[in-house]
């Protein structure tokens, strides 16, 4: 199911917090799903890609790769899904580590979906900033 993408470049939208673009790529082949979640970081300028290999709902392999922006631009299939803060990305990364241990032997489809939702920021009201 498609989650609607957010495209907010305006810092006021998130109370002046710096946000970074998050991309996703999902590729299915021979009963295996490769799901990639990538964040574009400015310092140092690079793309961090978290790669999940999922077979029958079970997370079989997880690894992280880092690419230059130029290398990333040459990759097909990635689409911008949201912008997130570094603190939300840290929560995502920590949750990912927990899920990778928890889901080695059981289906974790909902846990993986919920983890990706962590990256989507709630619109803040000006009065709460």
UniProtKB/TrEMBL annotation:
Compartments, record wording: Secreted
Alphabetical UniProt keywords: Developmental protein, Glycoprotein, Repeat, Secreted, Signal
InterPro entries from the UniProt entry: CHRDL1/2, CHRDL_1/2_C
Main localization category: secreted
Chordin-like protein 1/2 C-terminal domain segment(s): 10-129
A Gene Ontology term for the protein's cellular component: extracellular space
MF-aspect GO terms: BMP binding
Pfam families given in the database record: CHRDL_1_2_C (PF19548)
Any GO BP: negative regulation of BMP signaling pathway
Full protein name: CRDL1 protein
Organism of origin: Tichodroma muraria
């Amino acid at each position: 199911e498609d989650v609607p993408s957010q495209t907010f470049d305006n810092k006021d939208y998130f109370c002046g917090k710096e946000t970074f673009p998050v991309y996703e790529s999902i590729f299915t082949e021979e009963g295996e799903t490769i799901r990639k979640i990538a964040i574009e970081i400015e310092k140092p300028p690079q793309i961090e890609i978290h790669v999940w290999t999922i077979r029958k709902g079970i997370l079989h392999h997880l690894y992280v790769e880092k690419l230059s922006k130029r290398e990333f631009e040459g990759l097909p299939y990635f689409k911008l899904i949201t912008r997130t803060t570094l603190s939300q990305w840290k929560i995502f990364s920590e949750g990912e580590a927990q899920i990778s241990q928890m889901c080695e032997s059981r289906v974790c489809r909902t846990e993986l979906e919920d983890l990706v939702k962590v990256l989507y920021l709630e619109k803040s009201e000006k009065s709460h900033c």
